[in-house]
Structure formats: structure tokens, C-alpha cells
Design goal:
Blueprint: H1 23-51, H2 56-60, H3 64-72, E1 80-81, H4 84-94, H5 103-125, H6 137-160, H7 169-178, H8 185-204, H9 210-225, H10 252-255, H11 258-283, H12 290-306, E2 313-314, H13 316-324, H14 331-346, H15 356-370, H16 373-382, H17 384-400, H18 402-422, E3 426-431, E4 437-440, E5 452-457, H19 466-477, E6 491-495, H20 504-519, E7 523-527, H21 531-539, H22 542-545, E8 551-552, H23 555-570
Parallel strand pairs: 5-6, 6-7, 7-8
Antiparallel strand pairs: 1-2, 3-4, 3-5
Length: 582
């Protein structure tokens, strides 16, 4: 194997998605790249309809951006190109700023791509690749389902030949319903034929690129039968040749409104790209550096900005396509760029005959793929609360827009993290019939044995949940209301195995709790402190407050110390045997 690793010509972090490679591997990946181009070109043409961009800009996303990611990224499988989610965010954000597909609209889209690259580069410098972990799978499913409905409704009028003017999804539905009586039959027939071809080929022979067959077939049919004279709208002349590298300047007042659009795109790109790259890295036992991929994604979006196209993203469907075609490195994506360059130079003239409804039908199929009802129903069966979160996210996307939807998705994901920490799993530990520990609800009167409560708290202690921690222990330490019981709780030992950290505010509350319990004759202690928790105890002076008889290595040590204390108390002497405590 002729490897480039360690080459003095290239920096060590360049071409990590390609190196090392062999001649046979390069030929295999090149064939996969040609197959990817056949499947991907019709798809990115459809994404331009979502983004509101000229058709040729879809091809541009498969040129310089894909090469830039191959040079600077890390993942060997991730395909970076136009994507439905970021295209929808772009269209939603630029709505009302300029006429779709106009020169000014394209310029604004270029600035969004450049600002997105800046956000991604900042994320790389700050090593923020971990942010992808903060968007839960539940919220992402809801978000992409909402995007699917929004995108599908946006192109439904185009596939039916019904004129739709509104940019808001709800109003689009109303306009389509009102215009059903004016459905353009030839347009509907072409759309139906495209759907039948693509779905039929995917079912019968999945290796044949149905979208490419549909695009070539309908383009030929449109030219041969002059479908435009029958009222079927075509995309018109497409600019040929390679993109010109340029970037015009905009006044600052026009750039400011683009910043939140770019931020929403960056969040979506980080999340989707990292999740996709991680899946294939694990599957193929490849090393993955998410922060290095951020640099590749930043370079790809910067390349998109200067080449006259729009934001690009790591695509799960296109990555799956290149893997199924046998690609095992970014050489496949570079080969795709080569095929696209040939199309731009030699084959753009026939695209003028392509019916617009064909792209609408292809986008509709993408939208249907995004609507993951099976996953939603699975979430509902396993976790109704998380299903409500996913459904809420989807509804916000459809009603308020994709940009607001990504903000809600982030907020809901973070709130769920806070909720789990604010409402951790707690309970009282008791021995069962087999003399092993089990946990029962932490309610008034619950005890491990008479006079002793072993209390488990299932999260780190911080300012928000420390009050609940203290309140629950005070309830457990209350003398039970049953007058027949003469002995109340005398010891409360906290099982701190799940308490990884204690912050300043929580430490103050613990000290107050200790003093409050001691006034009622109850001793508070801790067992099974993690090293990080011991460090927090030292820093916040808890170690000095809790003596060696109040901190234990094991629950059994605490239980043994309590038994000796009780025996000593019954004999009217001080408890002994604290040597097992730490």
C-alpha cells in the first residue's frame, strides 16, 4: 500500500479522509464517486427549489465544497453537499429579504454560507464538536419530521400545477386546498410518472438511480413533445461552465439580519454532520475527530460562498449512498466533483427542458423520507413525555418556520438535560430478602432500618437541585407520625456514588442541612464519594465540616458504624469502631 501518511509535502491534518490509500482502493472509490454523482445530481437540483436558488447552484455544491471538505475534514465517508434541512433554514431566513433566485438573493445566500463557515471555524478553535451531543435524538426526529412536512407542502403546489404565493406553511395548505379544482392535468401526470419511476426502481432494482432516470427521461420527453407548449413549466436556460470565484461586498445593515440564519445553519450542520460521521466511523472502526470535521465543514461553506452557491451540510442519505456504492474514502467524493465539473461544462444546455414539477416531485420524495412516523410512534410507545417534546418541535417547525424550530429544538434538548438533573432518581436503600440492596421511594417514614436512612441521590449537586436534596432528607429525617414507634431517625447517610460534582451553592446548602439536622439529634454523613466529589468536598470545606465518622468508603462501612453507634448508645457509652471510616 502506497501511503501518504507522514509525507513531508502535506501537513499531517490534511487529506485525513483520503490517506493512506492504494491504487486499487482509489479505483474502487472513483467508481463509487461516479455512482454517487448519478444519484446525487438530481437530488441537489431539487434542493435548489427548497433553498430558492437558481438550479445551477445545486451543481456548484457538489464541486468546490465537496473538494474542500475532502482536503480539510477527517471523516472518510461523510458527503458534504446541499441538504434539505439547511436549505429550508436558508429559505425561511431569507424570506422577504430578496426575490428568490435573484442575483441579490444569491449574494445573500453566499453571505449566509460565509457566516456559517465563520461560526464553524469558531467552533473548531473552541473545540465545540461536543455540542452535537446536546441535541437529543428525540428532538432531531421531531425537527426533521417538521422540516419534511414544511418542505413537502412547499413543493406540493408545484407538483400539482397549482399556483401558491404564500411563504407560510399553513397559508400554503389553504391555497392548495382552494386551488384543487384548477389542478393542471399534464403537470400532475408528469409528477405522477416521476414518482412512479423513482419508487418503482427503488423497489425493483435499488442500484439503478431512479432520480437520474426520471430526470433524463422527462427532459427528453419535454424536448421531444414540447411539454412547455402544453402548460408544463420548465426550468429554462441554465448557465453552463464552471463557477466564477468572486464575492461582492454588502453594507453591514444587510449582513446583521443574516447572522441568526447562519447560526441556525451552523447548529444544524454540527449536529447532523457529527451524528452521521460518528455512525459510519463506528461501523467501519475508523478514527473520528469531530473538531477536525468542523474545520472541513467551515472550509466547505467558505468554498460555497466564493463559488456562488449556498450552505452545505453533511448528508445522511448521500453518505449512505456512497457507502452502498462501495466508497471507503473521500476519493469517491472527489470523483463526484469531477463528474459534476464535466456536467457543468458539457451538459447544462439540455437541462433547460427539464420540467419544474420533476424537481418538485423529487423534493417531495425527500420530504417524505424525512417524515419518520415509525420512529415517532416508537418514541410514543417507549416514552410519551419525549414523544410530546418531538411533536412540539415538529409543530413549531411547521407553524413558525425552520429557523425558530432549530432554536426550540436546542432549548428543549437543554431543558431536558436540566430537568433530568433537577428531578434525579432518588430513594431509600434497603436490603431485600437476598440481603442485596434495593431502592424504595423516598417518602416520609421510609428507612433502611430503625433509626437509619441510607439515601441515594442520582445526580450531581448544583444550585438548582440542592434545595430538593435538602428538603427530601429533612422529610426522611422527621420522626414518623406513628405514636407506637418510639425511635425516630438518628442517622442519614447519603449514597454519593452518582454525585459527580458539588458546586458552591450546593455546598452551602449541605452545610446548612448538617447544622439543621444536628439540632434535632440527627447525624448526616456520606458514603462512596467519587474522586471528583472528594475534590469538591475539599475545595468547599465540606471535608473539614464532616469528620471521619461521617464519610465512608462503602455502604456496609456506614451500616456497621451505625450498628456500633446504636449498641454504644444502648449501653450509654460513646460509639466505637470508627476505624473503618475515611
Amino acid at each position: 500500500m502506497a501511503a501518504l501518511r507522514g509525507s513531508p509535502v502535506l501537513p499531517a491534518k490534511w487529506l485525513r479522509g483520503i490517506r493512506p490509500f492504494s491504487r486499487s482502493g482509489a479505483l474502487r472509490d472513483a467508481r463509487a464517486g461516479v455512482a454517487l454523482a448519478a444519484m446525487n445530481i438530481p437530488q441537489v437540483l431539487g434542493y435548489t427549489r427548497i433553498a430558492g436558488m437558481p438550479v445551477v447552484t445545486g451543481l456548484y455544491t457538489l464541486l468546490l465544497p465537496i473538494v474542500a471538505f475532502a482536503a480539510f475534514g477527517c471523516s472518510r465517508y461523510l458527503v458534504v453537499a446541499a441538504d434539505s434541512a439547511t436549505a429550508a433554514i436558508l429559505a425561511s431566513g431569507l424570506n422577504g429579504m430578496a426575490t428568490a433566485a435573484s442575483a441579490h438573493y444569491v449574494l445573500l445566500a453566499g453571505y449566509v454560507a460565509l457566516l456559517t463557515a465563520a461560526f464553524l471555524l469558531l467552533g473548531r478553535l473552541l473545540k465545540l464538536g461536543f455540542i452535537a451531543d446536546f441535541l437529543s435524538q428525540t428532538v432531531l426526529i421531531g425537527f426533521l419530521t417538521g422540516v419534511g412536512f414544511q418542505v413537502g407542502i412547499a413543493v406540493l403546489g408545484e407538483t400539482l400545477g397549482v399556483q401558491v404565493e404564500s411563504r407560510r406553511t399553513v397559508m400554503q395548505v389553504i391555497e392548495i386546498c382552494r386551488g384543487l379544482a384548477q389542478v393542471h392535468v399534464p403537470t400532475l401526470l408528469v409528477s405522477t410518472a416521476v414518482l412512479a419511476v423513482v419508487l418503482g426502481l427503488s423497489y425493483v432494482t435499488p442500484k439503478i438511480p431512479g432520480p437520474l432516470v426520471a430526470v433524463v427521461g422527462t427532459t427528453w420527453a419535454s424536448a421531444y413533445w414540447h411539454l412547455s407548449t402544453h402548460g408544463v413549466a420548465t426550468i429554462g436556460a441554465v448557465a453552463g461552465g464552471l463557477p466564477h470565484l468572486h464575492f461582492a461586498l454588502l453594507p453591514w445593515r444587510e449582513i446583521l439580519p443574516l447572522i441568526p440564519v447562519a447560526a441556525a445553519c451552523a447548529v444544524m450542520i454540527v449536529t447532523q454532520s457529527a451524528a452521521t460521521a460518528r455512525v459510519y466511523a463506528v461501523r467501519h472502526h475508523e478514527e473520528l475527530n469531530e473538531n477536525q470535521d468542523l474545520l472541513g465543514l467551515a472550509a466547505a461553506n467558505a468554498a460555497a460562498a466564493v463559488s456562488g452557491t449556498f450552505v452545505v451540510n453533511g448528508s445522511p442519505t448521500q453518505t449512505a449512498a456512497v457507502e452502498s456504492a462501495g466508497g471507503q474514502s473521500q476519493i469517491a467524493q472527489a470523483a463526484t466533483a469531477g463528474v459534476v465539473a464535466c456536467v457543468l461544462v458539457f451538459l447544462t444546455r439540455p437541462l433547460a427542458y427539464l420540467p419544474q414539477c420533476v424537481l418538485g416531485a423529487l423534493v417531495l420524495l425527500v420530504a417524505i423520507h424525512l417524515i419518520n412516523l415509525r420512529a415517532l410512534f416508537g418514541i410514543r410507545r417507549e416514552s410519551p413525555g419525549e414523544f410530546a417534546v418531538a411533536l412540539t418541535t415538529a409543530i413549531v417547525v411547521v407553524v413558525a418556520g425552520v429557523e425558530d424550530g432549530i432554536v426550540v429544538a436546542m432549548a428543549v434538548s437543554l431543558l431536558r438535560i436540566v430537568h433530568h438533573s433537577y428531578h434525579p432518581y432518588t430513594g431509600v436503600i434497603i436490603p431485600d430478602a437476598n440481603l442485596t440492596w434495593k431502592v424504595i421511594p423516598a417518602v416520609r417514614g421510609a428507612a433502611t432500618e430503625p433509626g437509619l436512612v441510607l439515601y441515594r441521590f442520582g445526580a450531581s449537586l448544583f444550585y438548582a437541585n440542592a434545595g430538593r436534596f435538602a428538603q427530601e432528607i429533612l422529610v426522611l429525617a422527621e420522626r414518623p407520625p406513628d405514636p407506637t414507634r418510639s425511635e425516630g431517625v438518628r442517622w442519614v447517610i447519603v449514597d454519593a456514588e452518582a454525585i459527580a460534582n458539588v458546586d458552591y451553592s450546593a455546598a452551602r446548602i449541605v452545610l446548612e442541612l448538617k447544622d439543621q439536622l444536628e439540632k434535632t439529634g440527627v447525624r448526616l454523613g456520606f458514603a462512596r464519594l467519587a474522586p471528583s466529589t472528594k475534590a469538591d468536598f475539599e475545595r468547599h470545606h465540606l471535608s473539614a465540616a464532616f469528620g471521619p465518622g461521617q464519610v465512608f468508603e462503602r455502604l456496609h462501612d456506614a451500616l456497621g458504624a451505625f450498628e456500633r453507634w446504636r449498641a454504644g448508645a444502648e449501653a450509654n457509652q460513646e460509639p466505637a469502631g470508627e476505624g473503618e471510616c475515611v
